[in-house]
Amino acid sequence: MESTDVELVSTDDGSVAHLTIPGGPLTARTARELADAAASIRETRSIRVVTLAARGDFCSGPGDDLDVFDLRPDPASALAALRPPVVVGIDGPCLGEGLEVALAADLRLATGRSRFALDHLRRGRLPAWGGSQRLPRCVRPGTAVGLAMLGTELSADEARGLGLIHQVAEDLPTAMADVVTTLAARGPLALELTKEAVHRGSELPLRDGLRLEGDLNHQLAASEDRAEGLQAFFDRRPPDFGGR
Length: 244
Known about the structure:
Blueprint: E1 7-10, E2 16-21, H1 28-42, E3 49-54, H2 75-80, E4 86-90, E5 93-95, H3 97-103, E6 107-110, E7 115-117, H4 131-134, H5 141-150, E8 154-155, H6 156-162, E9 167-168, H7 172-184, H8 188-201, H9 206-221, H10 224-235
Parallel strand pairs: 2-3, 3-4, 4-6, 5-7, 6-9
Antiparallel strand pairs: 1-2, 7-8
Helix pairs in contact: 8-9
């Protein structure tokens, strides 16, 4: 069996997909395999949560063989296109293209030894995997301009204070597991629609965003999951959501 850089493992019930990359410099092979793995997850409707982590330091920057324009879709775009929530766990440096990949996730957790920088300009390049667009959707636009132009390196606590990451964890695997457990207990359709409302709505004028929220609420109200949630409430039992 041919070896791969990116490991994709699903839980026994198929509801959670765990992606693991080697870490260190992001090579062309790892980037390509990550995009391919995300594409395969997109075709699997049973998956309710996706996680991404590295075996070592998350990403110290691009590998010597990485041509960011040679991948379509790039791994960040492939992750951002997933319907279920994507949770990334970061340990160590998360720089350049690695930060662009992390920005494509919905929730970002990190250890205290993590550090973050969108440092493309130091290498005479611009972000090409959505970093210039996703960063100002995580932090204030003025802050994002400074981070991108100066290539400022942030500690985990600084990144948390700006809203770039959601949690600094002493025990990253345990923190990731807790978040996954919480998300997996939610209705998968409601999670998908919430993700759509937030991400699509951020690109729309307020009036159109409110209309989108209303439309998605109508869609959820007609679903089996909504009926199951109500019935479980009246029966005083945990809901058994089917994602329909």
